[in-house]
Amino acid sequence: MELQSRQVMKAYFIGGGIGSLAGAAFLIRDAQLPGRDIVIYEAQPLVGGSLDGALLASGAYSLRGGRMLTTDHYECTWDLLSSIPSLEHPGLSVRDETIAFNLENPAHSQARLVDRNRFKIDVTHMGFSARDRLELLRLTEASEETLGNSRITDWLSPKFFESNFWYMWQTTFAFQPWHSAVELKRYLHRFMNEFPRIETLAGVKRTVYNQYDAIVRPLADWLKRQGVQFVRGTRVTDMTLEDEGGRVRVRQLMLDRDGRTANVRLDDGDLVFFQNGSMTDASSLGTMIEPPPHLTGKDSQGWALWESIAQGRPEFGNPSAFNTSIPESYWLSFTVTCRDSGFFDKMEAFSGNKAGTGGLVTFRDSNWLMSVVLYHQPHFAGQPKDVQVFWGYALHPDRVGNFVGKPMSDCGGADILHELCGHLNFDRALFETATCIPCRMPYITSMFMPRNLTDRPLPVPKNSVNLAFVSQFVEIPDDVVFTVEYSVRAAQMAVYQLMKLDRPVPPVTRHDKSLAVIFATLEKAFA
Fold this sequence. Notes:
There is one protein chain. With 527 residues, the chain is an alpha/beta fold. The protein contains 17 helices and 17 strands. The chain has helices spanning 2-7, 18-29, 75-81, 94-104, 130-141, 144-147, 164-173, 181-190, 211-225, 297-300, 304-310, 320-323, 326-329, 342-351, 413-424, 484-498, 515-525; strands at 11-14, 38-42, 54-55, 61-62, 113-114, 229-232, 234-244, 247-257, 260-265, 271-274, 284-285, 331-338, 361-363, 370-374, 388-394, 435-441, 467-469. It has a seven-stranded mixed beta sheet with strand order 5-13-14-15-12-16-11. The protein has a five-stranded parallel beta sheet with strand order 6-2-1-10-17, covered by helices on one side. The longest helix has 15 residues, at 211-225.
């Protein structure tokens, strides 16, 4: 192990998301690479990528979303967080801190689906017909080769998408009917143990704060203390690739640092870890009166490097499978900063859940398919005691609202609060002092797009000497995208392979092989 560390002079990470932060931590912890030999390039002022959360200059809070965690899965994530000290609880790791928090605040939703009459729907049954069960079983048991690049609608009939199960599963994981059948199959297997309790979200775990404050900040703090160099305001615009008898090596990185160009020459032992693609690329924020600007990859250039190096190199994947149909991959989220307790009081009374215990509340008949979640407060480190923050999102922002006569994508925060009050039949005066910040994310579920097996590169392509991919757009058998775990697992696999570490990556827990889980799932399906 020490020999491998001496052979590597530098490790460069392109992008400062959770995959890069995790990769740097694994290099230090498991490969014994000194932190001073690790460089992370990030174009934005903050690291953390999609795990964001911030207090805006206006005094309102904003976050693009929160990723679901479970202690029954996320093997690589918990392995990582067990090594990262808590910022607020000396002697505890981030993993210890998170588990303790969830023991104190267990999730058990009592208002998972709400109909147009503000009636809490009975979701103890899944609403399946015999045909639905047979079709779902056929999809679940089909091979990925058989499923190919087909869509979910190629396997399930229209009535299936009116079932309680679909509304809950879809909004928990953000699936659309036109998304990849392979990805749905993987989710059904990976989270089979969640199927019997999908209506309560009892398996969902939350972090103490938003995931920037709860995961990114302590992880970045630990990396800084190890000497890792964070180079912000810097975009890697290109890389020089050298062919060595069919094997590809990165020889040079081209940087743009606030408009100034620079080149970084790589020596033989150097490694590059690239976050290819981004589900939150080209995100934009609106205000109470203005909708978010409609940005694309042309505005951000976030996909350009992957598109460049993948040309003529099929082992590096096919980004066009994921980023060419924004209408199929985008939705809007919103963060609401409340400066009195009125809304939280009424929502807790309506739902039967104290904030932080209920999970998503989905308005089934909403044209936008809107959901909201009241987090445990405070949700941000340093949040004032008289401020409360909640988050929501809508899967159909291109449709005209039920109470607002325009698509959500054309709405400012005030319009969104108007629509929310309509579904709850709440007085709009509840939000008189609140601020709602909408966020448009054109590629947020791009990793769910139908694709061929070769459209995603392996974490370390077979023809790569020193280049690895660590993102949601790599191929990891049996695991599921749109999770923190997927990026962390990709990073751990890439580090162990390039460093030739004789240490196993934690395996995916196969709950779908458990007889108890299978029987509980069947019982629920026939409820």
